[in-house]
Design brief:
Layout: H1 2-43, H2 53-56, H3 61-97
Length: about 100
């Protein structure tokens, strides 16, 4: 029993020491980083901003044409398949229930 209690006590103490050192290192690191960032902000004469999005957009008329044509073809295929499904459904209903048109 004493061996178990000693092991648990040692684990608790070592965990506490580890936590203490890690929090100390983290807080010192954060302070140093914040200090460096604040110095960079104070000494910077101008802040460079990225160019506006409107200037970064590249217009590709051929690609736009191909994409729109592709979308039209895909929409046409879906519409055709939907019509076939409707006709098959009507044909099946007439075949099963004997409806005549």
């Amino acid at each position: 029993m004493s061996f178990l209690a000693g092991s648990i006590a040692g684990a608790v103490v070592s965990g506490g020491v580890y936590y203490g050192f890690s929090s100390l290192m983290q807080s010192r690191c954060v302070v140093v980083i914040l200090h460096l960032l604040s110095e960079r902000l104070v000494t910077a004469s101008t802040v460079l901003s990225p160019p506006p999005a409107s200037t970064r957009v590249v217009h590709r008329p051929f690609l736009t044409l191909v994409q729109s044509r592709w979308n039209q073809e895909v929409a046409s295929v879906f519409a055709t398949v939907a019509k076939w499904e409707q006709h098959a459904s009507e044909w099946g209903r007439k075949l099963l229930y004997g409806e005549r048109s």
